[in-house]
Structure formats: structure tokens, C-alpha cells
Specification:
Helices cover 42% and strands 18% of the residues. 19% of the residues are buried.
Length: 243
């Protein structure tokens, strides 16, 4: 009733013991109660978030794939559009994502900023953040200065999150053709069934590719994000993090 363009709700799939019916009921309830955009994120058991609860049996890779495919088919039967790896919308115009943008600014504790040549994350400490702002300094805690190949890979990773990679957009941003930079990788991805060329120069993720993206995201999260967050929770401005 407040005329928001997008009302988004987040859910986690592949929780220990979760069934398709559990997830289906939650997703359907979200849409029935006014959400027009639902995100379904894979469960990642962060070591830094230890709760003290006894460990639960993890869902197998095969079970995760079956659950993700089942909820995807259910949403498609209901006429919901897949707008990214993790999201479904009842209205194609309902979209919410910062990470798929080529550049963005982040404000507040732990917020991130992406520029053409660097990625910056603000301190996790509220006190340190306020002190920096009060003294007229930026609250950036860590900065990754991209090499050109690193920036290309980062761009591709988040473009794939949006379900397709547009070669023209890549060339506009980098001044180099996608096929020239990643021709071999594109051929391998097509051979393995991860992507298909929907039209010339536009590569779309297949359902198989989507699932393997989930698997890679979990690896990336535990190898990089988890380690970085664990350190930054203890140090407001670490001098260096070796990954």
C-alpha cells in the first residue's frame, strides 16, 4: 500500500533436515502476503558464526541439487520469473541487487564499495567508524586493488549471478572483447553444459550451471569472506590479510 517497487524476502535453502514442502510453503506464503521478489540463498555453515548448538547432518550435494531444481520448477509453474541465481519475482520489474552493478558506493559499518580499480570494505567497529567520520576520514578498513584480470573475473562472477553475461557490456567496460579475454573458458563452460549462447554474444546460465555457481559460491565464501570477516570482527583496521 506504500507503493514500494520491490518488496523482497530472503530464505535459506539446504538447511539440515529441510524438505521441499518446508521451503515451498515459506516461499508461497511470502508471495501471498505481498512480496513480489523472493531470494533463496544456499545454507553456508560459517565457522565464525558458531552457535554452540550440536552439529546437524549436512544435506548432500545430490539432495541440494534436487531441492534447488524442485523449488525452481515450482516457482516457474506459478509464473514467477527467475531474475538471478537466487531470486524469483512475480513481477519481472521487481528486482533488487547491488552486487550485480558495475560500480556502487557503500555507507555504514561493514559496507562495501566497488570502483573500477578497487574494492573497499568499511570497518566492522561502530566506535571506530564513528571516530573516523567525526575526524573527516574515510572509514575504509581494507582495500583490494584489482589487477586487470582480477577485475574481469570479479565482473564475470557477478554478471553470472544475474543469469547471463553480455559480451557487449563486458567490452564497453573493459575495452576488450569477452571472447578475446576468456574464449577458452567460454568454450569449456558450453561443453560442460554450464552456459548456452542464447543469442550472439549473450551467454545464459543453464540449470546445471546455476547449481555449480552455488557450489562455487560456498567455496568462495568459506575461503575468502569467512576468513576476512573473522579477522575484521576482532580488528577495526587490520594492516593486511593474506588469503
Amino acid at each position: 500500500s506504500a507503493s514500494f517497487e520491490t518488496v523482497s524476502m530472503d530464505f535459506i535453502f539446504a538447511l539440515p533436515g529441510q524438505t521441499f514442502d518446508d521451503l515451498r510453503r515459506d516461499v508461497d506464503a511470502a508471495f501471498e502476503h505481498g512480496a513480489n521478489h523472493v531470494a533463496i540463498y544456499p545454507f553456508i555453515d560459517f565457522p565464525l558464526a558458531a552457535s554452540g548448538a550440536p552439529p546437524m547432518p549436512r544435506m548432500s550435494k545430490k539432495e541440494k541439487r534436487a531441492l534447488l531444481d524442485a523449488i525452481t520448477e515450482h516457482c516457474e509453474r506459478k509464473g514467477r520469473v527467475r531474475t538471478s541465481i537466487w531470486t524469483f519475482s512475480s513481477d519481472p520489474k521487481a528486482n533488487y541487487s547491488s552486487m550485480t552493478r558495475e560500480n556502487f558506493l557503500g555507507f555504514g559499518c561493514s559496507a562495501t564499495t566497488l570502483l573500477k580499480d578497487r574494492f573497499t570494505i568499511n570497518t566492522f567497529s561502530v566506535d571506530a567508524y564513528c571516530d573516523r567520520i567525526a575526524s573527516g576520514r574515510l572509514p575504509a578498513s581494507l582495500t583490494l586493488r584489482f589487477t586487470r584480470p582480477q577485475r574481469m573475473v570479479y565482473w564475470l562472477f557477478w554478471a553470472a549471478y544475474g543469469m547471463e553475461v553480455d559480451a557487449k557490456a563486458f567490452e564497453r567496460f573493459f575495452g576488450e572483447s569477452l571472447e578475446q579475454a576468456f574464449g577458452l573458458e567460454l568454450k569449456l563452460a558450453k561443453l560442460l553444459g554450464f552456459i548456452k549462447e542464447r543469442k550472439r554474444g549473450v551467454y545464459s546460465m543453464t540449470r546445471k550451471g546455476v547449481f555449480h555457481y552455488h557450489c562455487f559460491e560456498r567455496f568462495y565464501t568459506l575461503a575468502y569472506i569467512d576468513k576476512m570477516w573473522g579477522i575484521m570482527r576482532k580488528e577495526a583496521f587490520p594492516k593486511r590479510i593474506a588469503l
